[in-house]
Amino acid sequence: MSVKYGILTSLYLQKNHGYELKLELESLLGTKGKINPGQIYTTLDRLIRDLLVSSVGRDDQERKLYEITAEGQKELESWLLDPVPYNSSKADFHFKWSCARKIAFDQEKKMLNQQKTIIMKDVMELTKLKTGSLLNGDETQYLLITGTLLHLEADLNWINQVENRNQS
């Protein structure tokens, strides 16, 4: 999970102040937990330094407002299209997908296809390793690889369901 990309996602849609960004990020995370407000402001400082976000004045309650820059939009879109390796944790991809959905990312299909491609590559490599483990009599390795393959199969099924719902 990346606070940086959660903030960029929220600012993609509209200017916002720090507390609202915290609430938006928690909404994107769903049941994953709460965000420390200090994390939001520290990340905003880095995003401003890196020219991905700018401070654009204050709202009617004197809260500092932030907006995403063109460079920030490019950075977010680039991140959304970068496939997540399985060893990272599928939660990273689910978070990324939630961010894409939130902003109605017009390249969601490409994002899903790239994720399927990286999963299929992992499936092919692991299938070779699984066969080698079986031939070498390494049952523990065989079972661990089998478990990973089942997780990858579940991820592919989930992506297929997302794609099927998108077509409806």
Number of helices: 7
Q: Radius of gyration, Cα only, in angstroms?
A: 20 Å
CATH topology of the largest domain: Arc Repressor Mutant, subunit A
Q: Specify the CATH architecture of the largest domain.
A: Orthogonal Bundle
Order of helices and strands: HHHEEHHHH
Structural class: mainly alpha
For the record, give the distance between the C-alpha atoms at the N and C termini, rounded to a whole number: 29 Å
Strand content: 5-15%
Question: What attributes does this structure have?
Answer:
two-stranded antiparallel sheet, Arc Repressor Mutant, subunit A, single chain, WH_DNA-bd_sf, Tscrpt_reg_PadR_N, WH-like_DNA-bd_sf, mainly alpha
In short:
This is Lineage-specific thermal regulator protein. Helix content is 70%, strand content 7%. The protein has 168 residues and is mostly helical.
